[in-house]
Design brief:
- This protein is of the alpha+beta class.
- It has a single domain, classed as CBS-domain, CATH 3.10.580.10.
- The chain is 35% helix and 22% strand.
- The longest helix is centred in the first third of the chain and has 11 residues.
- It is globular.
Length: 140
Amino acid sequence: MTRSVHEVMTSNPVTVEKLTSLAEAARVMRDADIGDVLVVDEGRLVGIVTDRDLVIRGMAENRDPAETTVHAVCTTDPLTVRPGDDVHHAVALMRRGALRRLPVQTEDGELVGVVTLGDLAVESDPGSALAAIAAAEPGS
């Protein structure tokens, strides 16, 4: 039986406003033990920023992390999926866009989760190395 995105996604996505500094976004990621945050403008999704974005688009470009906003380095207008979408649809989007995570939004734009490559690995092949890594406790 095919599962839907809401069955495998991580609920309660962490968000930051688009004018949040890179330094603050890094602290949010550290404190939540996650590698990305969704970027919003008055609650509306406008982007996604990853720990890699902070390094490659921020630090490596000599941007001041205290002064540079996440909006300056995030991926804008990210692809999204709906909670009821089939996981195969999420996999296809990830494959086509070489993505590791997708925000999950309802039809009215409410952010309800994030589905990651790890979430899908656990779903499709629970015995795989990637699934084991994704399911491991942080810091283990």
